[in-house]
Amino acid sequence: MLSLLYLQLCLSVVFAKYQPTWPSLDSRPLPSWYDESKFGIFCHWGAYSVPAYKESAWLWWYWKGGKTDKDVVSYIERNYKPGTTYADFARDFTAELFDPKEFADIVKSSGAKYFVLTSKHHEGFTLWPTRTSWNWNSVDIGPKRDIVGELRDAFKGTDIHYGLYFSQFEFFHPLYLDDKKYNTTAYVEQVSYPQLLEIVNRYKPEVVWSDGDWEKSDEYWKSKEFLAWLYNTSPIKDNVVVNDRWGQGSIGKHGGFLTFSDHFDPGKLVARKWENCMTLDKLAWGSRRTMKSSDVHTVHELVEQLARTVSCGGNLLLNVGPDMHGKIPPIFEDRLRELGRFLNASSEALYRTKPWIHQNDSGNTWYTSRISSATLPKNRLYNPQIEGQTIVYAWVLDMPTKDLELKMVKTTERTKITFLGTNVSFEPGARSTLLVNFNSIPWRQLIRNDVMVLKIENAASQTLGSNIYERRSRVRRLLDFSWSYDAF
């Protein structure tokens, strides 16, 4: 049956716009909503949230897999009865306090514009009912609820795009282990490929975030065939975005937006749309019982990471790990709501912006920008600096103790500086740099006392800065950039 379905999918793309080849698939422009959103929330949740120890999403691997951790083994032996198996955790994954509307409210309050849920992580436990994972899904056992569906419904009617993470491989699925041993494809044909089609057709996510691909090629996963179907004929073909984890060698090279690695922070402009996926808990993706308050990123650290990421052309995907009962830890909620208050007041410096010709400056300052010109290509990599058209935003992350000089900004007699979130502005006059007088800072009106955003209007025109594209082998069509990889 699956072979027939696969044949039909292949035939359907023969005369379609996007062919199952990387050059064709990589030519698809990203839907504009993704670049405009800038910030999303990741959610790692599954049976691993029950033991919730160390890097819980990988607990099986450190307990019984290929990298045994004596501390993990000892933890299980001390806290669970003899003979406990990984499958036993699913029974205790009750999520009895799970309220999808509460999840949606917390995410919305953070200022995030998209949400990505782990529909299935490497343990293989699915958060939706599927025949391909009998008695190992959230409806047959544990919560007895369609978590993927309930969260999708909770985000309907909001401005937040709903996405799904999907692990291609499974730690201990017998068909996958046999495929590795005998060089067969039974697991893909009977499990992973049908599951991908199922979540797309049933839940219509606007993000398909693939992972767990690295042990096998994109040919094994049938990734190119899936993406061709996704882009050409799927019910989400016009709005869906995907990442770059579709088989050995694809990460940082093929797909939609690039991730390169977890916690990717290049500190310079990247020549293709990318995403920094990072954790709110510094030490784990999933729930962790031993987490301390000092292990959780501060709001200032989150603002800094967001500014660094967006100024270099990326999006930030920030992960939270709910507990086994279905609650987002209060310290996570506090961080997200406080972050959202700052982003709400600074929204014009974040959403729908582009990188500027310079990425950073003194005082740990990072730049974003917007421009009034309607003639520039929509998928341009950055905004040029044109006096009277470009508005620059300076995210000052190290608050000054004396006058602050921003050397990348050239001012004119018409230049105006506004402290975002306040009604205070000043005109610095014509200078070769921007000087912010310490005594002019409206400290009591600032949203936070550890970061401020300056709105800079009518700065002098400049040409492209020499610090851009340190990794490029050649530069061409910079303003007419359509996210093609050949600019590296």
Helix and strand arrangement:
Blueprint: H1 2-12, H2 22-26, H3 32-37, E1 39-43, H4 59-63, H5 70-79, H6 88-92, H7 100-109, E2 114-120, H8 147-155, E3 161-167, H9 174-182, H10 186-203, E4 207-211, H11 218-221, H12 223-232, E5 241-242, E6 274-279, H13 299-311, E7 314-320, H14 330-345, E8 360-361, E9 365-371, E10 390-396, E11 404-406, E12 416-419, E13 425-426, E14 434-436, E15 452-457
Parallel strand pairs: 1-2, 1-7, 2-3, 3-4, 4-5, 6-7
Antiparallel strand pairs: 8-9, 9-10, 10-15, 11-14, 12-13, 12-15
Q: How would you characterize the overall build of this protein?
A:
This protein is of the alpha/beta class. The chain has helices at 2-12, 22-26, 32-37, 59-63, 70-79, 88-92, 100-109, 147-155, 174-182, 186-203, 218-221, 223-232, 299-311, 330-345; strands spanning 39-43, 114-120, 161-167, 207-211, 241-242, 274-279, 314-320, 360-361, 365-371, 390-396, 404-406, 416-419, 425-426, 434-436, 452-457. The chain folds into 2 domains: 2-345, Alpha-Beta Barrel (TIM Barrel), CATH 3.20.20.80; 354-464 and 477-488. Helices cover 27% and strands 15% of the residues. The strands form 3 sheets. Strands 5-4-3-2-1-7-6 form a 7-stranded parallel sheet. Strands 8-9-10-15-12-13 form a 6-stranded antiparallel sheet, covered by helices on one side. Helix 8 links the parallel strand 2 and strand 3 (161-167). Helix 7 (100-109) packs across helix 8 and helix 13 (299-311) crosses helix 14 (330-345).
